[in-house]
Design goal:
Layout lengths: L1 H29 L10 H7 L2 H33 L3 H12 L6 H12 L4 H8 L13 H25 L3 H9 L4 H29 L3 H6 L7 H11 L3 H29 L5
């Protein structure tokens, strides 16, 4: 009876996931193997193109850099928040995640105002005499990374704060009382226990930045095209649905591969993490 009730509760959700997620993805990937030139001809055409390889490399590089920076900033911020008293902690969490209440497009447009040639940064630098002419900060990898970090750091903070709050203070105090310095304490106690949150946060940031469309389009443009922008272009501009499906399939495979690698790293740091 217990098993029957459990299946009754999980079956609707399972059917919804299969119908709305799994089947569409499989059908999308299946279309890439139906070309007359051969089942892998679309993938060969993708990787034989220097431009397409450059787009893939750029996307992977920006996503990994964004994830690394977000991990560092998010971990430090979350650790500070976790040490705060109750009311102050609540205010800090609200302040940290407040940007999530604003749409991605709006937040990306804000960086156009900040980084533009007539933007806040250039106007400030010119007014204090540090530069004579405006700097070209838009439509570069740096502008995309800065905006991506701003977009995804709140997710990292939100994920890590709860994990760091759950680490018993007794363990840290015991480590200090036994003569351990802060760095060994961090590496041997705090980091392994925080690994589940780090992995979840890293996966969220990587998948979000790797598949992002609006931010690379607004701040990177054609010069810094990423896979999400390239996918939209192939599907909605040139109507190359097979090419768009190939890009989507490559993105799915890379995302799964990166998540798998992150999970293995988590097992090495903390066998109980995953």
């Amino acid at each position: 009876m217990h098993k029957l009730a459990r299946w009754g509760l999980t079956t609707p959700a399972t059917i919804a996931v299969v119908v709305l997620l799994v089947i569409p993805v499989l059908l999308t990937i299946a279309t890439t193997f139906g070309e007359a030139k051969g089942p892998f001809s679309t993938y060969a055409a993708f990787f034989n193109s220097g431009f397409r390889r450059a787009v893939l490399y750029r996307t992977l590089k920006i996503a990994l850099i964004t994830t690394a920076i977000s991990l560092v900033i998010g971990f430090i911020t979350a650790y500070v928040i976790a040490q705060m008293p109750g009311r102050l902690k609540s205010i800090a969490i609200i302040a940290a995640v407040f940007p999530l209440l604003t749409g991605v497009v709006v937040r990306s447009f804000a960086w156009l105002i900040i980084l533009g040639k007539n933007g806040i940064i250039n106007d400030t630098l010119i007014s204090i005499g540090l530069i004579a002419e405006p700097l070209s900060m838009l439509y570069t990898e740096g502008s995309v990374i800065v905006a991506m970090v701003y977009l995804f750091v709140p997710l990292m903070i939100l994920t890590l704060t709860g994990v760091l709050e759950g680490i018993p203070r007794d363990l840290i105090e015991a480590s200090a009382s036994l003569g351990a310095r802060p760095v060994p304490t961090f590496l041997q106690i705090i980091l392994p226990l925080a690994t589940p949150g780090l992995i979840v946060g890293a996966v969220l940031v990587f998948t979000g930045s790797f598949t992002s469309y609006a931010t690379p389009q607004l701040l990177g443009g054609e010069k810094q095209m990423m896979m999400g922008t390239f996918l939209y272009q192939r599907a909605m501009v040139t109507f190359d649905w097979v090419g768009a499906s190939t890009i989507a399939a490559i993105m799915v495979v890379i995302t799964i591969a990166v998540v798998t690698v992150m999970s293995r790293i988590a097992r090495r740091l903390n066998p109980m993490a995953v």
